[in-house]
Amino acid sequence: MTTKAAHKITLVPGDGIGPEVTAAVVSILETAGKSEGVTFDWHTYDAGADAFAKTGEYIPKALYDSIEQNRVALKGPVTTPIGGGFSSINVTLRKKFDLYSNFRPVKSLPGLVTKYPGIDMVIFRENTEDLYIGLEVMINPDIAQSLKIITRKGSTRIAKSAFDFARKLGRKKVHAIHKANIMKLSDGLFIKCCKEVAAEYPEITYAEHIVDNTCMQLVMNPYQYDVILTENLYGDILSDLCSGLIGGLGLVPGANLGAECAIFEAVHGSAPDIAGQDKANPTALLQSAVLMLHHIDEPVVAEKVQKALEAVYAEGKTLTRDVGGTSGTKAFADAVIAAL
Fold first, then answer.
1. Are 337 and 27 within 8 A, CB to CB?
2. Domains of the chain, with CATH numbers?
3. Secondary structure string (H, E, C) spanning the chain
4. For position 285, what pLDDT does the model report?
5. What is the rounded CA–CA span in Å between residue 214 and residue 232?
């Protein structure tokens, strides 16, 4: 077997449970890759409070340089302070590398009993504008203002991403989610751009739902949705809601995609309350790594990892506590490796 050149990948273990789930995922990827002659050259960097303690920077310049050079990164969760402290590392990296498309597939795993079996939908969330990017100012000590920025460029390119994906994968329906009944200019522009793009894909059904109604519809009948297309803040909220349909945040992967770079990360947070206790579920980051493997054109390894993961869930004997099991992070990773 011919061994290919090692894939150079920037690795950010994160903090909290990040280092544990990252180590589990790396061990699985390296095992899966060996049989196919696929190897990885991990360039590892801290970010957030841990990085600041070591370098005086929340995102070290060396990390920026590594992502710019490698053009692909796998990132564990990094704690974001609430109501103060440093800015979100996730948001900062997305803005820095113009990672405009947040791609989050939400698909049921075999063997898990949930209220909504057989879920299979995809969320396309605009990733670089809207309220979520944190353009805020204090007008005076009693008034804080946030700016909602929606552009034709941002709205059009995320819409194209969603429709291109739907066409390529044979998805039949795209729902654009908005609040244009109230925010007639900003969300109105988003919807106008979505409609213009939809007209270029006549074989795909296009529909629009107001965001609050969408939350209700997802709880009542999530099966009506196939591809969800939405703005930044709504996408963040809806992706968490949708993760609950299949068993929680510990299961859902995420990809931040731009024209030049891509960062793959779990949807969930750093869960400091269980850090270092071998309790964390690495599934979300592992499925994010599967997306990364497809992105770097290693579909055979990607499918091997996904099938092994699904085999462990179907068997149900070595699951973590968040999905009803009793096993730890390492035991779960070992079970996936055995299933390879």
1. yes
2. 1-112+247-340 (3.40.718.10), 115-119+129-245 (3.40.50)
3. CCCCCCEEEEEECCCCCHHHHHHHHHHHHHHHHHCCCCCEEEEECCCCHHHHHHHCCCCCHHHHHHHHHHCEEEECCCCCCCCCCCCCHHHHHHHHCCCCEEEEEEECCCCCCCCCCCCEEEEEEECCCCHHHCCEEEEECCEEEECCCCCHHHHHHHHHHHHHHHHHHCCCEEEEEECCCCCCCHHHHHHHHHHHHHCCCCCCEEEEEEHHHHHHHHHHCHHHCCEEEECHHHHHHHHHHHHHHHCCHHHCEEEEECCCCEEEEECCCCCHHHCCCCCCCCHHHHHHHHHHHHHCCCHHHHHHHHHHHHHHHHHCCCCEHHHCCCECHHHHHHHHHHHC
4. 97
5. 15
CB 284 within 8 A of CB 266: yes
Active site residue ranges: 132, 179, 212, 236
Mean pLDDT of the chain: 94
Q: How confident is the model at residue 54 (pLDDT cuts 50, 70, 90)?
A: confident
Residue-level pLDDT at 3: 64
- d(CA 305, CA 310) in angstroms, rounded, equals 9
Average pLDDT over residues 255-274: 93
